Amino acid sequence: MKIFKDKHTLQKEILKTKGISFVPTMGGLHKGHISLIKQSKKSKFKTLVSIFVNPKQFNKKSDFRSYPRSTKEDVKLLKKLKINYLYIPTFKDIYGFKPKNKVFLDKSSKKLCGKFRKGHFEGVLNVMNRFIEIIKPKYIYLGKKDYQQLYLIKKHIEKRKIKSKIIECKTIRERNGIACSSRNTNLNKNQRKIASDIFYYFNNLKKKIKKDFNLFKINNIKKDLINLGASKIDYFENYNIKNFRKIKKSNQKFNLFFAYYIKHTRLIDNI
Ligand code: AMP
């Protein structure tokens, strides 16, 4: 595994290859990331993983500062997984140039997380646009856990006629149902139990409203979530994942998207 901190040295190296399969991450690696990396390794191209905690996608400085970082352990794990390249850029390496493509932000960026984290998706698209320009990957592996992010990156790529192909990867969960996330390390045992109870609550709710949409009663659900131990609820909404339109009847295919806090930790998921 070769480690790069500077885009020019990285670009010189990848020019020699047939192409790159790219797995962007913010580090704090877990089973979700590992699953993306394993899928990438099956492609015919060399696997490049990036670790960059992108300050521009955090709407609160405190959240950026407390985001879990474990670079030493991550490097060890990536060596064991035998990836080809690891890119750990500095802020200047990513933001010290003007990209050719302008970011395209689809209107669905105003929904869900976009409504509650101002500037978040602008930050995500900004960094992805830059990574794409530096690496020019053949494939980009993204998790469905962050489905709205995946959808918006796909829209940007389509609109700007970029040749990279997005590979959508299924959500990996812990045994207790909760989606693996770097932020889970900020939860204690009791808080993990709350997150697990909330996951099963939404899982059952989805089954119920598939049969009878009238059971989707917002105020009752809010009360239930608070009783289960959520500290604050950002949203729980049903969307058609093909076009990001809100679902109002149960005869359409949908995912239930939710975001909430346990104390200061914000968790998101969709099922
Ligand atoms: P992050 O490091 O949180 O920015 O995530 C990097 C990539 O891993 C994104 O494409 C995420 O959607 C994906 N990812 C995060 N958690 C999971 C998970 N539990 N299952 C599958 N993919 C995930």
Beta percentage is 15-25%
CATH fold assignment of the largest domain: Rossmann fold
Mean pLDDT: 97
CATH class category of the largest domain: Alpha Beta
Largest β-sheet summary: 6 strands, parallel
- Topology, number of strands: 10
Strand order of the largest sheet: 1-4-3-2-5-6
Shape: globular
Number of helices: 10
**From the alpha-carbon coordinates, what is the Rg to the nearest angstrom?**
19 Å
Bound molecules: adenosine monophosphate
Helix content: 25-40%
Content-based structural category: alpha/beta
What would you give as the CATH superfamily of the largest domain? HUPs
Poorly predicted segments: none
The number of distinct structural domains comes to: 2
Order of helices and strands: EHEHEHHEHHHEHEHHEEEE
Distance between the termini: 35 Å
CATH architecture term of the largest domain: 3-Layer(aba) Sandwich
